[in-house]
Design a protein that fits this description.
Blueprint (H helix, E strand, L loop, with lengths): L1 E3 L13 H9 L2 H14 L5 E3 L8 H10 L3 H12 L1
Parallel strand pairs: 1-2
Helix pairs in contact: 3-4
Length: about 80
């Protein structure tokens, strides 16, 4: 089971927008990640955490989107799965 390491994704200090800061702080990423890991281990899956940095803005990302006709997020997930 491959998960994005949500703890390395944008923190509140990187944006000046009050609205964005509120949304970032209300998203319980630690709890979500912890729950996913526990459930995967409960069912006997091997768990890998992958850094999602650089998966959206790359040449490979654009090629995969065009080749398989995927949206932006699905193409990023595909690249992360390939890396792991």
């Amino acid at each position: 089971m491959v998960f994005e390491n949500l703890l390395v994704i944008k923190k509140r200090r990187y944006t000046r927008s009050r609205r964005a800061n509120r949304k970032i702080t209300r998203f319980a990423k630690r709890e979500l990640l912890r729950y996913g890991i526990v459930m995967a281990m409960k069912y006997g899956f091997k768990v890998l955490l992958v850094n999602p940095k650089g998966t959206t803005n790359s040449e490979e990302h654009s090629k995969i989107m065009r080749r398989y006709r995927l949206d932006r997020h699905t193409a990023s997930a595909y690249i992360i799965a390939l890396v792991a």
